[in-house]
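EI: anyone free to look at a 227-residue chain?
SC: sure, send it
EI:
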Amino acid sequence: MIFGMWDGVLFHLGPIPVDHLVVTEWAIIAILVIGAYLGTRSMKLVPSGGQNVVEMVVTFTYDFFTQVMDDEHTAKKYAPLLSTFFLFILISNYSGLIPGAAHIEGFQPPTSNWNVTAALALVTFFAVHIGGFSSHGAGYLGHFVKPNAAFLPLNLIEEIAHPLSLTVRLFGNIFGEEMIIAYLLFMAPFVVPSALMGLSVLLGAIQAIVFTLLSASYIGAATSAGH
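SC: here you go
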């Protein structure tokens, strides 16, 4: 069975059908929760082990978002959301690199499904506008008619284009990459795909960074003083 072709249900939770994609997402969420718990359950002044890893991730993402948003308060406020975005997308992208994942039911990278990338993009969409209203109140609506009211249709299209571009960019890159690896594994196991899978490690990180970077820039623009 070629990767990405399963439409069946693995099991039911009462009347709710649960497919392989949902199970993979649960596993990724469990990894993040367990990792966060183990890294913070016994905090010390001088970090070590898991706490060191967690603090390194938090420090890196916080500094990164501060530069992107150009506002320390906004970066601190949205760093938990954006850091979770980055880690979830990164692990999702890498889940397809598990040996045999392209042929084993239950291992489809969530980000290779447009439903998942659309959901992530919608979270960004609402975070942008909630942040805009939180920072500027009703005055936030004024940016839809800047520089004048004639630009209202274009500004609305731009707002719709943001989540659409986030959805398509992440989904298209990961889905295309996984399909290519799956077919190459079918035709030439462990030969050509090995180099391509090595490249996938880099591309998976880049896609996670790009999605998070764009989300941070959209939120930063909506909450900035000059908006």
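EI: Confidence is low (pLDDT under 50) at residues 1-6.
SC: 👍
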